[in-house]
Backbone:
């Protein structure tokens, strides 16, 4: 009767499944070559948060993150995927340790790249310092892995975005792919509004939120290297593209990144709104950017949006 | 004797009201140029035309608000204006209640108080408001013509011309009803307008019913109340929607209907072009609606499901889409929507075969209520939609079939039909609060406030079906109160009420088809997946509309 999802052929499923709607496990399953995923510390191990029980909060057997290895187009990869539907994908002690361990394994093996599927509001407040420490450990492990020659690719398109410590970690990655629903920032809209007032940032003005933190703006600013449509197929292709593009990492690259960011601040530091930045970047009718379809936007971004291959 | 009677008769006047109105108009005219009054003089105008104790309708709708006039009324000199009796359908703005705090108004008759539901409960408990009654829309409108006729009505429109002809735009809503009752019974009409123009796009209210026009400095407040983001629809809601379509819409062949505003009915709207289409139901169900312009219905309209929609009000962002789909919507010579709450409520009551909507609490008799002990949201229109119309006389297939199920033994030619009144929801609602309860909060509230009547949204004897993720209960097929109770318990899941079921009786009811489980309807709960929705985001709705739907910023994620 009805054409059901689980009866659909894999090829059709990967092109019809929305990244933003899928669970972390579905994302991992569809991103990698079919049947290739092997999980580390899976839910059967019941490595749950030691902190949530104190607050009488529900726990999850995988603590909201799936880590493991598999194959992407035949080649081995490590992969981590945050579950944005469990506590907003927030980092806790166990959650963070799983990602740290994965990055350390990659550092040791050197040749296997890492895919990080972010979907997070930042640190789990209930885990306080343990969560903050996890962010620091992940950033260190990530930079050590990159120094050892590992490519670390971030994929951002989940409904919780990539905020707080997640935004910091994403900034450490070799390259990022982002979709329109994906948002990347450190302070979230509500945090800014609470601290600086609604005049500074109206968190309920969702168009403002998206043009300030959303995937399109991040791509045009060069913070994300690739913009992709929201299907699993598009994200898989973006991951493959980025693995092919990322070069070696060293001091020169960090200096180039510093230059890039300094240049960005000089050019756009006085802009009040993302639309001003886009206009200053030479985009005609910049106010229509949010309305562009993925294809139209990718064409525009390839023409205008700067990414510097020697930076990051 | 005869002489004196004649003398008395010659001095009796039957035009006190007209004279009073004329003296009010004269007082107001001193502040006006023609009919136009400056915004800064609005309070003085109100002080000039309103008398203490007047019945005042401060529009006050479900969506649009005469906000400038609300603020102006709040600022009146209490020695000139006080003790007003407010008669308005919507108590929506904070100012509507500030009037009572300040003593400008004393008594209230209303229908709906959505965003002010907590404060209105607080003020009723504190004795700040003398409550006339909480009405349904149609009741309050009816009373405008019997015993709650406004002395003064303060209304909102988009534009006026120099003569005072008004254009209300798509949100006509209550205005024609309020104007009719006030203007033709010697009342005073004051309109706030967004702009004054040489020629209005169309005349919604003729100038001879309008006495004063105040130009507001910014457009009147209007709230998008009927936009449900498809991204927030859960798999549980999709399952209940599938059960409703296959278990109720299809077997009764429901073509004329009204939908509530919850996510379950939004899920139904988004399943019509997918699940409904695969069941071959296009053209056989859901073709004619009494319904606001729900954005969630765009995919069904674009897929050719919907033939006609009449609306109570409008919806922000739908203006251009409606204009371009005039085959479906009611539009004026200017091309924009013409809504009318009174007519649409009447249509929902008499011309629809089904109402389906969500509620907060259902008891063992099937009574339902959206009142909790701390919130009195009012009724709005749901009881008008969700009630069997005893005055109905025209037959239709669903109406006759439902009547036959309720009363199989009466001769068909003498048997009333029944409107299908369906309550849909998950057994545990928002924040895991159970939908089913032994005793409604509404009863507790009525006891605390000494009300003569508990605020029941839909009475149990009007409810014909209850749909939850556990199945469909057809109350028409129940033959006594005991069966009814078990039919309700039988779809109440793991709530206390559900766990209190008599398993054997529920099983017998299932064998009789009173209760139908998903598997009885050939529905696998695992198929209830978001990929079934014709649109999964607001952006998908924009795409379906060909870019004509322009969602307000608060609903965007791009």
Residues:
């Amino acid at each position: 009767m009805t054409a059901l999802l689980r009866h659909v052929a894999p090829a059709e499923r990967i092109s019809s499944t929305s990244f933003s709607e899928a669970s972390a496990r579905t994302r991992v399953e569809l991103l990698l070559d079919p049947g290739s995923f092997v999980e580390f510390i899976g839910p059967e191990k019941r490595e749950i948060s030691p902190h949530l029980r104190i607050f009488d909060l529900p726990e999850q057997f995988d603590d909201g993150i799936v880590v493991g290895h598999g194959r992407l187009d035949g080649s081995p990869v490590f992969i981590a995927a945050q579950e944005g539907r469990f506590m907003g994908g927030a980092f806790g002690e166990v959650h963070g340790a799983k990602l740290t361990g994965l990055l350390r394994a990659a550092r040791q093996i050197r040749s296997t790249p890492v895919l990080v599927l972010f979907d997070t509001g930042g640190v789990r407040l209930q885990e306080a310092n343990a969560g903050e420490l996890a962010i620091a450990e992940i950033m260190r492990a990530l930079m050590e892995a990159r120094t050892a020659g590992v490519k670390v690719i971030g994929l951002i398109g989940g409904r919780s975005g990539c905020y707080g410590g997640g935004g910091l970690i994403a900034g450490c990655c070799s390259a990022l792919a982002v979709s329109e629903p994906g948002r990347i920032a450190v302070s979230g809209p509500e945090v800014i509004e609470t601290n600086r007032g609604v005049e500074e940032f109206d968190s309920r003005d969702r168009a403002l939120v998206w043009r300030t933190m959303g995937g399109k703006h991040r791509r045009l600013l060069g913070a994300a290297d690739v913009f992709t449509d929201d299907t699993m197929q598009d994200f898989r292709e973006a991951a493959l593209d980025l693995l092919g593009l990322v070069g070696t990492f060293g001091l020169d690259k960090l200096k180039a990144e510093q230059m890039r960011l300094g240049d960005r601040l000089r050019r756009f530091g006085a802009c009040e709104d993302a639309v001003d930045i886009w206009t200053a970047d030479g985009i005609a009718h910049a106010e229509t950017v949010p309305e562009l379809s993925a294809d139209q936007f990718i064409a525009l971004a390839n023409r205008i949006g700067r990414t510097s291959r020697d930076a990051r | 004797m005869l002489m004196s009677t004649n003398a008395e008769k010659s001095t009796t006047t039957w035009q006190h009201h007209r004279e009073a109105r004329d003296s009010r108009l004269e007082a107001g005219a001193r502040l006006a140029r023609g009919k136009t009054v400056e915004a800064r003089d609005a309070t003085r105008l109100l002080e000039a035309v309103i008398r203490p104790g007047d019945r005042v309708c401060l529009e006050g709708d479900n969506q649009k608000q005469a906000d400038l006039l609300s603020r102006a009324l709040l600022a009146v000199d209490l020695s000139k204006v006080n003790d007003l009796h407010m008669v308005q359908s919507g108590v929506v703005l904070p100012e509507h209640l500030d009037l009572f705090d300040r003593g400008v108004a004393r008594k209230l008759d209303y229908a709906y108080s959505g965003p002010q539901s907590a404060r209105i409960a607080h003020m009723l408990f504190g004795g700040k408001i003398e409550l006339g009654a909480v009405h349904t829309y149609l009741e309050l409108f009816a009373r405008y013509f019997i015993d709650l006729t406004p002395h003064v009505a303060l209304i909102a429109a988009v534009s006026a011309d120099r003569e005072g002809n008004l254009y209300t735009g798509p949100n006509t809503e209550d205005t024609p009803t309020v104007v009719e009752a006030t203007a033709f019974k010697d009342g005073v009409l004051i309109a706030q307008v967004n702009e004054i123009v040489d020629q209005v796009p169309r005349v919604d209210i003729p100038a001879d019913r309008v006495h004063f026009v105040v130009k507001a400095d910014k457009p009147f407040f209007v709230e998008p109340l009927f936009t449900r983001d498809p991204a927030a629809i859960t798999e549980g809601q999709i399952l209940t929607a599938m059960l409703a379509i296959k278990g109720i819409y299809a077997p009764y062949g429901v073509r004329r209907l009204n939908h509530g505003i919850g996510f379950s009915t939004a899920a139904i709207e988004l399943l019509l072009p997918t699940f409904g289409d695969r069941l071959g139901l296009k053209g056989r169900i859901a073709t004619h609606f009494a319904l606001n312009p729900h954005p969630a219905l765009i995919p069904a309209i674009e897929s050719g499901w919907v033939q006609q929609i009449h609306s109570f009000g409008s919806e922000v962002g739908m203006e251009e889409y409606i204009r371009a789909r005039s085959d479906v919507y009611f539009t004026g010579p200017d091309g924009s929507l013409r809504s009318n709450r009174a007519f649409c409520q009447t249509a929902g009551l008499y011309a629809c075969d089904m109402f389906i909507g969500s509620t907060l609490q259902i008891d063992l008799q099937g009574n339902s209520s959206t009142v909790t002990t701390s919130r009195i949201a009012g009724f709005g229109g749901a009881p008008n939609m969700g009630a069997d119309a005893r005055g109905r006389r025209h037959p239709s297939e669903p109406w006759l079939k439902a009547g036959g199920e309720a009363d199989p033994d009466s001769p068909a030619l003498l048997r009333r039909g029944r409107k299908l009144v369906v309550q849909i929801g998950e057994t545990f609602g928002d924040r895991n609060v159970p939908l089913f309860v032994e005793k409604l909060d509404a009863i507790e509230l009525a006891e605390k406030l000494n009300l003569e009547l508990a605020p029941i949204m839909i009475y149990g004897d009007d409810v014909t079906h209850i749909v939850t993720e556990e199945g469909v209960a057809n109350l028409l097929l129940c033959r006594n109160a005991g069966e009814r109770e078990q039919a309700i318990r039988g779809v109440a899941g793991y709530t206390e009420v559900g766990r209190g079921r008599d398993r054997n009786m529920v099983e017998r009811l299932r064998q009789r088809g009173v209760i139908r489980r998903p598997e009885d309807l050939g529905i696998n709960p695992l198929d209830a997946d978001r990929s079934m929705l014709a649109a999964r985001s607001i952006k998908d709705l924009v795409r379906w509309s060909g870019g004509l739907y322009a969602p307000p910023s608060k609903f965007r994620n791009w």
